[in-house]
Amino acid sequence: MTHATEPDKSRQGRPAGGPSMAGTVLPLAGLALLALVPLGAPGMQLLVNLALAKGLAVAGVSVLLRAGQVSFGHALYFAVAAYAGAFLMTALPGADLALVLLAGLLGAVVAGVCVGLFVVRYRGIFFGMLNLAFSMIFWSFLEKFYHITGGADGIRLPRPAVLGMDLDRASFELVLFYLTLTLVLGLGWATIRWLASPAGQIFQTLKTNETRLEYLGVSPRRALLWGYLVSAALCGIGGALMGVTQGVVTPEYAWWIRSGEMVFIAVLGGAGSVRGAFVGALIYELVRTYASAYAGDVWQMLLGGFLLVIILFAPRGVIGMIETLAHRGEARK
Amino acid sequence: MTPTLFLLALFDGIAYAALVFIVALGLTLIFGVMRILNIAHGSLYAIGAYATVSLSGWALAMGLAPILAFPLMLVSAVLVGLLLGGPIEWLLLRRIYDKPEVLQLLVTFAVFMILEDVQRLVWGTRPYFEATALQALGNVTVLGVTYTVYQLILLPAVAAALLLGMRFFLRHTIIGKLILATTEDREAAQSIGIDADKVFLFTFIVGAALAGLGGALASPTTSILPGMGADMIVLSFAVVATAGLGQIEGAALCALMIGLGRSFAVYVWPEAATLVPYAIMVAVLSVRPQGLFGSSSARKI
Amino acid sequence: MKTWLLTALCAAMPLTAAAADKPASLKVGMTTFLTGPASVFGVPAKNAAEILVETINAQGGIGGVPVEVSFIDEGAGAETLTSEYRRLAESGGADVMFAAISSGNCQTLAPLAEDLKVINFMWDCGTQKIFEEHSYKYVFRTQANATPEMLAAVIYLLKTHPDFKTIAVVNQDYAWGRDSWDIFRTALMAMKPDVKVVGEFFPKFGSPDFSTEISRLQALRPDVILSTNWGGDLDTFVQQAAQRGLMNSSTFVLPLAESSLERLGSSLPSGHIVGARGDHYFRHPERRDDDAFKDFMARYEEKTGEISVYPVFHTAQAFAALQAVYEKAIAANGGDWPDEDQVLAAMAGLEFQGLGRPVTIREDHQGIEAQLMATSVQTGDHPFATLENIMIFDGADITAPVGEVSVDWIGGLDASFLDQVGVATYAD
Amino acid sequence: MTAPLLETRNLVIRFGGVIAANDVSLTITAGRNLAIIGPNGAGKTTFLNICTGWIKPSSGQVLFEGEDVTPLPPRAIVRKGVARAFQIPQLFTEHTALENLLIAVAARDRLRNPFMDLHRIPERDEMMHLLEMVKCADAAHRPVVELPEGQRKLVDIAVALALRPRLLLMDEPTSGVASSEKHRIMEILVEALAERKVTSVFVEHDMGIVERHAEEVAVWNAGNVQLRGTPREILDHPDVIRDVIGEAV
């Protein structure tokens, strides 16, 4: 997998990173709009919450795309975190929401280290397929070891307490919504800053020239491992949030189609773009929910067609289109 | 693990491996030449099965002999190759060969999602079961266990024939050599005048037809229902990656390893049966990073 | 900052008002399998629901209010199911929910219904754990659970094949498959301790291919093979077993096979034990001469071209319960439309009759339903197997008493229990 | 007596039947720029690969400042003070020329702060100066993939220099640069190397460059160093004229 994404033109010639339209203003406006959803369109709250949780996981996959590596098994960390949360809740019924998310994150990072140490030795199709293999191994474990994992029906993730308070469903989901939004803002910003930082830039050189990186005194494998753990953590938090929002975790979380879906959404939103991950996830969930309501059970066909159009005509994804429009707007100003 | 159980696991493993190989063969061929892991291969497999069930159902309704189901399988395989394989390569993949590999992969994933819905729209969601071809061949009893001749003898025979046929085709026919050349080094092949576009189109059609044939041959042994493509294709990924890219013989050996591994697991530790193929893949790749038969291409500096 | 955020959010919570006046329509949200292998099971239930709603509305609806039913596909997976269920229950799209077919989905949706404070009839799922591990205010089961169904199967097996030695099981790998086997095995060991279990297989739900399991079973040669598979999985398993002659060497106990009789056609030979999860049979010996029964059977066959199967009977029971509870609540409310709490109150001790014998709801919200077991026979007057040597067991005798855990209660039984159960026997 | 900057002892490199290096012992002392000349395919680049640990010798040792570095991977040898510019420029094609240099600094200093923008590291101006020095200032903000071959070679050398090495190994530094520019660039390079006290070893085909800019010349032929001396001695040596220059003229 040599060059996986187009060079990110928005970084060109603007070293100081001033508040450009597409870079900062639009995303913040978008998040502010989403913050109004529970008041303006409560029906959409659950959908947006799920989309943003999935967006975090897609951001993780997008980070790997920045290094030219495509993982077809990142649903592994999504599922590990969700199940870690579920096991914690069965072990400590009154556990707090923060603890559940932490357990999920910890589970994902530990799994990330164990699998990461192995897969960072591979590149391209082998990297993609080995990740797939590990996620399928975990899926089989979840699906078949009924007495441990609850098998195909999964495990319930009862509502955790929030700061010691046992909230009823409605207020809990409101708190969860705004927590997800805060995490999206915080982690999104942190990921973008990390990608622009020296360590993040070194990670991205894996896409173009590992030999030169080796000759700069850096181990490409260790550089990939750092990026791999960042992506596993993001997927973990996404998975834990999804598990808590859904209230049930199933082996479906680790199925390979979900990993493929994440890569699908990453490219739809804009391969390698953190902002694109959330935009892609929102579009994906909206089409999935409302297409099936109006256009019968063909939401998969619609999304497949939409992605084909994106790949053939706008390879920098939806965020790429927004940025071109924004730049054109700025140029005219 | 008494000797009889050992033999039973062996027979089941071979029957299953034959099917996995036939599907993985098409995938390996396409990947070898075009460096694309065709995720839509799973849908082509499923549509091959659906097409066979419809064709043989229609033929039986017309009162034709059940033995006719076999040629119909070839017909549906060819149909899948031409009607689906051709347009996918010609209309879609041809326009993205210069694009990054992740986008090529995702085009096939998008096609997979589209075709999954096409199956649902055309054939509905209810399961089909059409086993006349299988019943036509009758049973054989080995060590007290009755097997269908279809699964125990026909499938492995077809798989072996395809392996030898493909080897002969690739090594001893002109088109075969062109495909091998393009697999080896596309730029070099083009520089000596090989029309890569034609080779790609031909390879994709053959690959798609093999997927269709896999589905057609599988249709009597299983009930045909939505999602069967996704289950089978993820196994073929394991076979292709374990074997090494574009390695026909490798795919055969790995399909056998994975088939036997899975069926022995059912006898020894049933819970781990679905786990075994991927554990084998990880084990093989940890020892040989480019796959069993893959060759590592050192980077020129 | 955290505490400020919390108080502000709670204040913004909208208050729900109880609607007491007569609504435009009584909306029912029903989950069933419209896709995947189980669709052969879920689609008949959908067709039955549509016929029943037509019939009810033709008689002026329930208490003068027409009934509307909307469906959610359980085949879309647990995630989509929960989001759709929640969307329907929250957006006022449903006053009463019928969920679900799969035991796994019931375990997921029951707590959700309690959370959403929406009345939920578990119209088909069988796992007994739901009411034994938790108590619910809004969730009821309008049919029996795995305990009477498996006990009836064991009793019928012991009455018809008293001296078999070995048994193997091939159940689907999810809640139903696992729970039903636990109960069956416990009952069998309690009443016939000398039986030996020679093989336990749990292929995945929706598995298209059982060839490896069948090879193993042929090597093991058990006298009896139990399978609580249903829908597409049962069809595939029986057809593949028949192809390889397994049906000739072992007696099959298929407690849910009544729903597959027509689809199995000639694949199901005579002499195998068939159950129907309740007293459901399109030629029900006690009800086949009843006019309402005959009318429904005719209309169902006319609409679908198929005979009625037990999911259809369970759907009829759910709608009968719906009609009975609202009419009871309206009567108790002086003719006015009842609010949710009044309907809940009316559920206590409710008695209603679908297409089988009457069903009563116990105080632990579990339905008491008679169980029909029989033996398959290829008589030739139908292109598929029909039933003979039919036994209908009284539901109350074979359901675990309120508050007892089924597996413990069954563990305490012994061979003498066989004669303590009320049973009606019919030739065919 | 301090150990030589780089020393190879009895190096043997065998690929299947081909002997790329046959018992090569070569020492490079600090401060004297050495040019390696020899016919094409004689194994000069392979020699650089061995010295930097990219491939392992069949037998023999490579020592850097007296320390045996034979088993080490390139990254460990680089950390000891060696840098390399390549025959085929090895750059991060999707980053700009300036970013390539900034990344080199980040790697050298192990910059870990996850929230500091790469463009804001203190050495930014120094790197701009380095680009100006190799006449690539205009390309500072253009992705390397868009630069012509010659400029890419120079940026490649600048990246190596950014590591502040003590020994710089270059593989045909001015190939691809317009011949009118070659000498001027070499002068700038040699001056910059001297100013930074960096010893350089460069494989070279252009005898004009060797003559004017190399302080010492080694002749690599048939897998071994046959001759070594000042440019004048080597370029007039009959064997060299026959085997090396004869080919070159």
Automatic annotation (TrEMBL), chain A:
InterPro entries: ABC_transp_permease (IPR001851), LivM-like (IPR043428). GO terms for molecular function: branched-chain amino acid transmembrane transporter activity. This is Amino acid/amide ABC transporter membrane protein 2 (HAAT family). The chain crosses the membrane at residues 21-40, 46-65, 72-92, 98-120, 125-142, 175-196, 223-242, 262-287, 299-319. Coiled coil: none annotated. The keyword Transferase does not apply. It is found in: Cell membrane. It comes from Rhodovulum visakhapatnamense.
UniProtKB/TrEMBL annotation, chain B:
One of its GO terms (molecular function) is transmembrane transporter activity. GO terms for biological process: amino acid transport. InterPro entries: ABC_transp_permease, BCAA_transport_permease. One of its GO terms (cellular component) is plasma membrane. It is found in: Cell membrane. It is a multi-pass membrane protein. The keyword Transmembrane applies. The chain crosses the membrane at residues 6-31, 43-61, 67-93, 105-123, 149-170, 199-218, 275-293. Its main location: membrane. It comes from the Bacteria. Keywords: Amino-acid transport, Cell membrane, Membrane, Transmembrane, Transmembrane helix, Transport. The keyword Membrane applies. Belongs to the binding-protein-dependent transport system permease family. LivHM subfamily. This is Amino acid/amide ABC transporter membrane protein 1 (HAAT family). It comes from Rhodovulum visakhapatnamense.
From TrEMBL, chain C:
Residues 26-373 form the Leucine-binding protein domain. Belongs to the leucine-binding protein family. Residues 1-19 form the signal peptide. PANTHER family: ABC TRANSPORTER SUBSTRATE-BINDING PROTEIN, LEUCINE-SPECIFIC-BINDING PROTEIN. One of its GO terms (biological process) is amino acid transport. The keyword Ion transport does not apply. It comes from Rhodovulum visakhapatnamense. SUPFAM superfamilies: Periplasmic binding protein-like I. InterPro entries: BCAA_transport (IPR051010), Leu-bd (IPR028081), Peripla_BP_I (IPR028082). This is Amino acid/amide ABC transporter substrate-binding protein (HAAT family). Keywords: Amino-acid transport, Signal, Transport. It holds the Pfam family Peripla_BP_6. It comes from the Bacteria. The keyword Transport applies.
From TrEMBL, chain D:
GO terms for cellular component: plasma membrane. InterPro entries: AAA+_ATPase (IPR003593), ABC_AA/LPS_Transport (IPR051120), ABC_transporter-like_ATP-bd (IPR003439), P-loop_NTPase (IPR027417). GO terms for molecular function: ATP binding; ATP hydrolysis activity; L-isoleucine transmembrane transporter activity; L-phenylalanine transmembrane transporter activity; L-valine transmembrane transporter activity. It holds the Pfam family ABC_tran. Keywords: ATP-binding, Nucleotide-binding, Transport. GO terms for biological process: D-alanine transmembrane transport; L-alanine transport; L-isoleucine import across plasma membrane; L-valine import across plasma membrane. PROSITE patterns: ABC_TRANSPORTER_2 (PS50893). It comes from the Bacteria. Residues 6-247 form the ABC transporter domain. PANTHER family: AMINO ACID ABC TRANSPORTER ATP-BINDING PROTEIN, CONSERVED COMPONENT OF ABC TRANSPORTER FOR NATURAL AMINO ACIDS-RELATED. This is Amino acid/amide ABC transporter ATP-binding protein 1 (HAAT family). The lineage of its organism: Bacteria, Pseudomonadati, Pseudomonadota, Alphaproteobacteria, Rhodobacterales.
